[in-house]
Design a protein that fits this description.
This protein has 199 residues and is of the alpha+beta class.
Length: 199
Amino acid sequence: MNNEQRDFWDTLKRWHLDDIDKCLAVEANYAATKTMLSFIDVLGAFYGGLIKYKGKYYVPAGGGGRSKKPVIINGKSYEVSGTKNQFLNFTKNYLHEFFEARVPIGKKMRLSDVLYDHFRCGMIHEGHSKLGTGIARVNTPIVIYSNYDNVPVVLNILALRDMLRRATFEYERDLFGVKQLERMRRWQERYDFLAKLKF
């Protein structure tokens, strides 16, 4: 990572984490939650090396995409993926609690899927979490509650903030670690894709 890339990364990280804390300080709970969920999207895209080519999303082969057959783009091997796959891959590796736990929605769903489908998609696209879910500010490390104030699944945004901060710095440590060179290669893929976008 050169100096320009490091400045970009530090700014991106600082803006998201600082904005989350500023929103929470003034009890802008929805804004804080939306920022956290979109930041997980951002981190997932860098984690997987997500690019877009001819209207489809791809990651370098071996990155947890949906396709079995690799696609060659500019001489490199990729597989079809998407933001959900990368969001889930990031939670699996850095927000373990979400990937390991299941909650009682329909059949028991993995909490990472609930986080994406009910909270991320609901709040980003519709302005609120989907029916049967909600958010709360509780000063405990418990991230999810069942039947909290008669709502089947409630996300504790203070615990999410703490977990996301920890995950961000763990990911950053892996980015610069000599044992995790693949992390930096994928980060670079995403950075290069963003740097080429034309406005």
